[in-house]
Amino acid sequence: MAGQHKNKLNLDRLAKIWALAERGDAGEQAAARNRAEALVKQHGYTLADVPDLLLTEGYLDDEPQPSAGGFTFYDMSNPAHQRAYAKAEEKKRAAWRMANRAKMDEVLARYGSEEAVFAPTAEEQAYDAVIKPFHKKGKAGQCDTWDGEHFSPSVRVRAALATVKPWPDTIPAAIAEYDYWEKLYDDRNIADSNNQYDYLGQGADFRRWALGDLINKEIEARDLSDVIIRLRFQEASQGVYNDSAIILRDLERLRAAENSQRPDPASGDIPPDRGSPATHDGNIGDSGNRTALETQNVGNPHVIDSPDMGNNERPDAASPPPFILNTASKRRAEVERILSTPEGARMSLRQIAGMAGVSPSTVMKVRSCLQEQH
Questions:
Q1: Lowest model confidence (mean pLDDT) among 9-13, 131-135, 208-212
Q2: Statement: the pTM of the whole predicted model exceeds 0.90
Q3: What share of the chain is helix, strand, coil (3-state, %, to 5)?
Q4: What is the mean pLDDT of residues 329-344?
Q5: Is 304 helix (H, G, I), strand (E, B) or coil?
Q6: Which residue, 77, 86, 107, 354, is most buried by CB atoms nearer than 10 A?
Q7: Domain map of the chain by residue range?
């Protein structure tokens, strides 16, 4: 925006004017805000952009700054570094807001207000209500549990959630509901400047977790289309959902079913099958249907993964966890292990989630629990 004008925006002058707008008396504040607005308007900015503009350029920094290696886990016991870390994070969010103002405006316009974006939906309230009997407040330094679980819904919690809405019995139906919760999460994350907090009610979060498991491995694929959808969902999750064994079982079962429906060559109706890989082993469904299926795009990764989110530290989606984390307790232990290292303390929620095979919201919960314990 500023590059469209001959004169570069004088940030030094703007910072001095804004200092009066923030700390002067009532008369000085009003006059300073008017001067600031007039100064930035000719460069395509509004008054609301001023704090983010100054923050991203380092004009509002008044605390120690991170070293070249960034803050470490051990710095967080130092109050000055805690404030500096918070300032650095706010600077990132300010830059994010500047780059994604149009997305934020679109979300707010669609909902009508910021309050409406975060207002619990009727479904969220219903899901929270049915799991309330399973809630147990955690002891000092411990997280709350629902039927003994922190993050994933137990069998009884799943049954309770099904009283509000039955669980989908097909992979496409499960994908549709999963995407609904992902979209709500993303909208709230956008409105909150990409903070990546827990934006869903606990019941809805349990619902989304269980839907992911249904898509990943629990619902039986009916045909090749379902297998493709399941595989694409796994790939889009960047390692969070990665049960490849179910894909193999799906394909073997579908091929066995297809073979059982073929006429018996011994009857003389058709010549014996010589096992053409192009016809049977390589293409179970019909080629026209397969082409249409390959154009589908399923899954809805979180906002931070979109190209314009400024996150260049995504985990390698091709690298699975170093060992099989096949229980919630193992996944939680892996998240705790990563967070306890200096490197893990600097990693994004999405990076840790991809390494441990959990959702970013789960990483946030584990981190919050660890912070409570310290």
A1: 9-13
A2: no
A3: 65, 0, 35
A4: 76
A5: helix
A6: 354
A7: 8-99, 114-263+274-373
The two structure tokens encoding residue 135:
């809630």
Give the residue-averaged pLDDT of 324-334: 63
Q: Are strands 145-146 and 135-136 parallel, antiparallel or unpaired?
A: antiparallel
**Of the candidates 172, 262, 158, 163, the residue with the CA atom closest to the CA atom of residue 225:** 172
DSSP assigned state of 135: E
Checking 247-254 for CB contacts under 8 A at 24+ apart, the result is: 250/220, 250/221, 250/226, 251/227, 251/284, 253/220, 253/221, 254/221, 254/223, 254/224, 254/227, 254/284
Query: Between these two residues, 49 and 245, which has the higher pLDDT value?
Result: 245
H/E run at residue 140: none
Under a CB-based contact definition with an 8 Å cutoff, are residues 91 and 57 in contact?
Answer: no
For residue 37, the Cα-to-chain-centroid distance in whole angstroms is 36
C-beta neighbour count of 240 within 10 angstroms = 22
Mean pLDDT of 345-363: 76
Least confident of 79-83, 89-93, 187-191, 358-362: 79-83
Please give the single-letter amino acid code of residue 91. K
Place of tokens 């960047």: 238
CA distance readout (Å), 263 to 226, 252, 257, 285, 346 = 26, 19, 13, 17, 61
Contact at 8 Å (CB) between 76 and 85? Answer: yes
CA–CA separation, 72 and 78 (whole Å): 11
